[in-house]
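Hi, here's the filled form for the chain we discussed.

Project: internal
Contact: R.S.
Residues: 813
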Amino acid sequence: MVNPLDSGALSRLTDVRAAWRALCSRPAYALIATVTIALVVGAGSAVLAVISATFLRPLPFADESRLVSLFALPPGSRAVLGGTPLFSPAFVRMGEGMRSVESVVGIWSRDRALTRGGEVEMIATAGVSPGYFQVLGIELSAGRMFTGAEDTAAAKVAVISSGFARSRMGADAPLGGRLMIDGEEFDVVGVLPPVFEPEFVGAEIFTPLSIHRGNQPVPSSTIVRAVARLRPGATPDQARAEVESVMRGVVDEHPVALKGWSAGAVSIREGMFGDARPALTLLFLAICLLTLIACANLATLTLAEMSGRHDEITLRSALGASRVEIVRQLAMEQVLVAFTGGAAGLLAARAFLPAILALDSGAAESLGVVTIDWRVQFGALVLSLFVSVISGVLPALSATRGDLAQGLAQSSRRTAGSQRQARTRGWLVTIETMIASVLLVTSALLLSTFGKTSALEPGFDPSNVLAAQMGLPVARYPGPAERAAFVKRVVEEVRAVPGVVSASAGFNRFQPGSGFLTSVVVDGRPTADGQPRTLQFRRASPGYFETMKIREIRGRTFADSDVGDSLPVTVISQQLALEVWPGEDPIGRRLARSADPTRLMTVIGVVDDVRDRGLEQPTAPTFYLPYSQNSNPAAQITLLVRTASEPGGYRRAITQAVHRVDPGLPLSGVTTLEEFMASSLGPGRFRSVLLLAFAGLGLVLAVVGIYGVTSRGVGERTRELGIRVALGSGRTALSRLVLGQALGAVGVGIAAGVPAAILAGLLVSRSVPGTSMADLWGALPSVLVLVVAGGVAAALPALRATRIDPVIALRTE
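And the returned structure, exactly as it came back:
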């Protein structure tokens, strides 16, 4: 007795061997089909890897769906993702009377000095409120959590990441060990599990946050990234409404400082990665369009192949093969192509993913860890099978349709290529052209916007400027006088370094998109709605504008005489001057921060507008405060140094100059301003280059499709073209006939594609800053590339048509 399982397995193995032989007998078709699928799968896998890292990969939090992130919204803003972390007065009230929330916890990240083995370095740390890890559902791999009694500034306890325990503590037992942070000893009481790594919180050492009623050693301006755990059955919408209600109560308690502010809530995943959604949505749609082009391209190719195999299919049917058997055999060929192309695409994606991520230097921080995980592999498999089924199996079903007698009667070369198939292939070319038009116009729009943004003047000179962060320990620099004296001494030491042109200190992390907002009231200029103005502000030491080479428009900038006990002063940007005092001289006018409305600051100067948050960010009305009059112990200082030559070579000398003032103070975030400006263009470069690559792939596939259809049409019409030549038709007329039909399909595709491209461009302009209708109209001529490419693709078959010998053509038919 034959085992049916063995028989089925043998049958499948036979089908695989037959399919392999069939593909080997048609190497050109197999190669083109495999490469097409590999291109689509490779591009799709790269995008899927980013999507998986941000929106599919489980976060290391228990019951993630019940976690929401809370944000404060500046006056007039309703965009939660554009909000800021909560100010401490708002944070301490969150959770009170909120029926949808079990508990609210927070984290405050900052770099601090870690001393170990005589070496000092800056390390990413974070203060966390009691219950932070419990709310997130994190179980420590060793030790214990913080207790409520340890939520004080006096408690010197720390929980460390597992990576920090492995790399920094070596063979030492982490628990019970001690860490010297900002000159103070902390006892290690717990170690986090390996899944909870810094990419989720940006810190390796965690200490008590110590922000609660009656105990606020951390300044009230400290911002806290708050997370709430919802009660079972509660929704983020309910939490959002309650958060807004609580925030209204906080505003009532601080009517001047927080007037006009509100709050919002989003899922924790949206809070972490939501800013990346518009760009990823755009790239995902581009992949979908590229997949449709590939399907149309392969369907065109497969239809031509099935037409050429008409006799083979008819003969096999005549010899007794059922339609199911024939379709199964043809489908097996497509499955082999799908798996081969999919595997090649995954290998290509794995090889090129690092280069793709390098387009945006901030991708690691904004996207997390991007890898080709099992989700990406599964998506690649589905994508390759989808392309194969749509473009291969469906034409196979069409080719095997019909009765045997009709098939035998038509099994000649003269009738192999039916007019129906020719029309189908023509429509497929039209579809390819239409979709390629959308990709070309959209990529041209993004490139135009990126080029325009890259050409913007930042308002300062970033060449030969080095920026470095310094965090001042509160224990050693408790008051504004101590902090101001330290900054002055450091700047003097750095200025004395040979090759240093100028130096100063500011309050700007020089990270793309990083800004600091505050509420301001202007003396004698209330707003129409009575709300305070929300402005960007910077702290700076004397020499800041000279070091940055920011143009002074009128008045003066900060001097050494602007100290803590002198007249409070401010320097404002030109945009702020025009908005508040249009047509007037702002020098001598006064404004105050809402948090301290009695401290009126006099405007002493106006400077040019700058884009110090990155070129993709618009200029904003800004005022500058002298650091000696407005220092904040929670704020890091940015040391700015302009050098006579390439600033990278001065890092060691500048570090030594700082250590001559304070040996226990390391520098962090060291970068040149040119690197900062380049990194600020990272998101735009990421979008533009990837979409351009997809458009290029779409163009190549469309050209291959146009060439294939035109070439196949010439082959099927050999007899007709031979008769035309025999009847006296000229070579030019034949060429015009072939080219006209090919470009006719391209023209219809472009005519349909331009309106779709305009609609796509309008949608893109809503999600990409800096785009305009002028850019969109300027991008439309890019469709002419399709006309040229289509003409070139059709020219070779047309040239072959003009060389047909009528005698040979009629003989072969």
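Let me know if anything looks off before we file it.
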